[in-house]
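hey can u check if this looks right to u? its 299 residues, i copy pasted from the old doc so theres a chance i mangled smth
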Amino acid sequence: MTVALQPAVSAEITADVSAQGAQLAVVFPQVRQPFMKVYQTIAKGAAEGFAGPTSEIILDEQKSAAELASQIGDQVVVALGGRGVTQLQPIELTHPLVVGAVSRRMSHVYGMSMIPEESVIVTKLHALAPDTSRVFVVVRTNDNIIDLKAAQLAFNQLGIQLIIHEVEDLRAAAGIYRKVIRSLGPGDGVWIPSGDRFVGNALLSILLQASWKSEFVVFSSNPTHVKRGALFSVYPDNFQMGVRLGELARKVAEGGQQEAGMEPLQSVFVTLNERTSNHLGILLTDDMKQHIDLVLPAR
């Protein structure tokens, strides 16, 4: 009797088969606009990146863990926001949890941070304000939002000195800012990083007035600061962030073994204030414009 030999099935094909029929649940808390739109945009990107059936689950704090677990079932879960991660912690999921839209770096989970990679920020600074040689940043002591070592390395590699001031509270931060800005001029910059809790309206006004007078660069991770007069802002491209989270979820569905750890954000938008660039004598070349997604026109 002749026995027909069956072709070997590769691990890649096996993974694809195991992923067929997998469904994705993007879970996020009920929040007010415009924050809800951020989550919804990320969710749309995740659906595209996952390339399979996707649902959205808006968390209800009144819902028990058992009810939420029943709603999720065996779906792959992308949890958005710190509240979403916290509410899912008591639930035993079928697949490893994928986490996104969190500002703090979390070493024990798999996913993506909302914080742009330091090299992305310094690359934008070097492209848009190439004469900048010294940058000051004020951060909270022991805060893990910014990887200070990675930031130092990224700035140094492009010949920019990064001077970091670590402070305990708002009062100390205001004192540092008032002291530092008296010494700044052309070629200097101030970086207001992601997750900043120090620069409110009053301090921002002082900082921007000094920037205009002394002609140093202020750049930020908050796009509203550009409307006020900061030179530019680097902030997340929420849809593309979602696409990457969907891709990570797809890997989980395929059974790939993933190491815990957050990927830094690579996909960003850049908004620039043309009036400020004109005042600082920065002529926007075609090469510079390739780094800009939105220009606020000079008035």
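The first helix runs from residue 11 to 19.
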